[in-house]
Amino acid sequence: MFSFMAQYYIGINNQQLGPFEVHQLLANGLTPDTLVWCSGMNGWQVAKNVPELSILFAAQQPQYQHPQYQQPQYGGGYHQPQYQQPQYQQHAFQQFPNYIGWNVAILVICVFCCCNPIALIFGIIGLVNGTGVNKATNEGRYEEAQRKSRSAKSMATIGTIIFVVGILLILIAYALSPEFREALNEGLRNKINKN
Fold first, then answer.
1. What does the buried/exposed string (b/e) look like for 172-189 if buried means 16 or more CB atoms within 10 Å of the residue's CB?
2. DSSP string computed for 104-124
3. Which helix (H) or strand (E) element contains residue 161?
4. What is the C-alpha to C-alpha distance for residues 8 and 20, in angstroms, rounded to an integer?
5. pLDDT tens profile 75-110
């Protein structure tokens, strides 16, 4: 089902650790009842239920004991305690958007079309943050990856707004120039004279 080179995340003491290769798991605290996840799995599973990992425990004696429960002294019968599976953030399933394409588009348009240095600066900052998203995600720094993703989107948005405003200002300045007004008036006079 999973390749032997799969990398697993493990959940210990309500913390998500990893990713680790299979041969590193025992050294990092893996037990048969540790929750694990790797790419391709639908959700977190107990390690002993994952075929690739169950072989790690075959040669070992169980290193854990189930707690002994006593029947209550008063009233009703035996009640098995209820356990809840720890809730881990499923960062391994998430890919944060990097907005690299959007920021590159801003850079290309600013360089080749309008030479807007302010929008260009925002595009560069957005591109730098965008390239850091995947690296931070791969290294397990999910909060940083999410922060860089938001920053890349903000820079792309601001760069786009500045670019559009710059184009509008250029068009307004051109429209208000004497040469434009003269050409417009000349065109109107020609049209009136033809009628």
1. eeeeeeeeeeeeeeeeee
2. HHHHHHIIIII--HHHHHHHH
3. helix 142-176
4. 5
5. 555 555 555 555 555 444 457 888 888 888 888 887
Q: Are 150 and 158 in contact (CB under 8 A)?
A: no
In the numeric block, which tokens belong to residue 188? 């109107």
8 A C-beta contact, residue 105 and residue 154: no
- Residue pair 86/33 in contact (Cβ under 8 Å)? The answer is no
Residues in the chain: 195
CATH number of 7-58: 3.30.1490
Residues 150 and 133: beta-carbon distance below 8 Å: no
Verdict on whether the full-model pTM lies above 0.85: no
- Euclidean distance between CA atoms 34 and 47, whole angstroms: 6
Spans of all domains in the chain:
7-58, 97-194
Instruction: Report whether the peptide linkage leading into residue 62 is cis, meaning its omega lies within 30 degrees of zero.
Output: no
Parts of the chain with a pLDDT under 70:
1-5, 59-94, 114-115, 195
DSSP assignment of 13-37: TTEEEEEEEGGGTGGGT--TT-EEE
Residue 19 has φ and ψ, to the nearest 5°, of -80, 155
